[in-house]
Design a protein that fits this description.
This is Iron-sulfur cluster carrier protein. Binds and transfers iron-sulfur (Fe-S) clusters to target apoproteins. Can hydrolyze ATP. The chain is built from twelve helices and 14 strands. The protein has 386 residues and is of the alpha/beta class. Helix 3 packs across helix 12 and helix 6 runs parallel beside helix 7. It is elongated and about 90 Å long. It binds adenosine-5'-triphosphate. Adenosine-5'-triphosphate (ATP) binds next to helix 3, strand 12, strand 14 and helix 10.
Length: 386
Amino acid sequence: MATVADIKCALENVKYPGFAKSIMEFGFVKDVQTDGSACIIALEITSSAQDVEAKLREDISEALSGLVENISINIKKPEAPKQQSNSTSGKNIAPHIKNFVMVSSGKGGVGKSTTTVNLAVAAAMQGKRVGILDADIYGPNIPRMMGLQGREVEVIGNKAKPFRIYGVDVMSMGSLMQEGQALIWRGAMIMKAIEQLLRDILWEDLDILFIDMPPGTGDAQLTLAQSVPVTCGINVTTPQHVALDDSRRSLDMFEKLHIPIGGIIENMSGFICPKCNEESDIFGMGTCNELAEQYNTQVLGHLPIEPAIREGGDTGKPVVYFQPESESAKRYMQAASKLIAYVDEVSDKASNDSIQPTTPPGVSACSTAGASQASSSKSGGGCGCH
Ligand SMILES: Nc1ncnc2c1ncn2[C@@H]1O[C@H](COP(=O)(O)OP(=O)(O)OP(=O)(O)O)[C@@H](O)[C@H]1O
């Protein structure tokens, strides 16, 4: 005759799908009742995904198969989120910021930070209250591109004040680390850093916070999406086919995290000669139109290779602000207004309800390691996005 203790002991072996910890360790088992041959188990889980429920039913039945004959499993779970939105009931650690735009790229060096800077300044020039959060922890270039290198961060209480320049509030990991300081980031550290950049910075009430992400798809992206309801993501790519392949991964990530896709910027699309102003094709042009169609999104702009863009980045004088008559500046302005229109359209729908972590605070939801192993956890295994 199985007892409640026997059943609970067997449930210790049932892992929560995608994680290394059991449903008992997570505290998801709320009640167990048995008369020895039949049992009723009440679970409360944080995922609304059908496949998580189905897997749990299967694993629990298997774990109890030799112990009791009749098993009844009641699972309480959150309501399923609407598609293409990330819902208003999820976590938001910076609620005074109206919209969050995640700027991503499949790989490094394609002009993600350059795009972030120029789109943000362009949006500010169009009357929006704008901020830039440089979350590219591996290569924070925003301070140089915004002319903030060497400037001391002002600390008020235990919070840091963003810099204000060209009408934009700016904070970067680069301004908080010593120059040249190299850090090796692990899952739990990345989570903490991203959360602090949102929570411990004195952000004003902003219309849009542009977030310059590290290249690729990893813990930083997932943490951001879990910390605030990201209004939309944009992808920056160059026109070569190899770059487009990497972009697909980035766009897939948005879909997986239920982040609406605001559009694609095709950067280094053609070359504008500074001498004759003629535009010529170098890496290809217009190749991301098909990608945009595939992901049911828009191309925000085709930005040419223009020396003025690079010079603006190197000297901390964004081209959109300092050379508004240049072709690039005009295209950034157009791209920003397209993005603003999209943000206004989807703003109310933003929610991250469906991707909340099921792990305790400080433990990476992407990690298969338990809380006690958090400091040595590697990302990989299961992740918290359902
Ligand atoms: N359209 C462009 N024309 C000329 N130079 C450009 C253009 N876009 C970006 N660059 C230059 O290319 C270099 C890389 O750009 P940027 O740092 O923005 O890329 P990134 O994708 O953010 O890189 P990382 O992922 O390494 O941070 C910079 O020197 C920048 O000034």
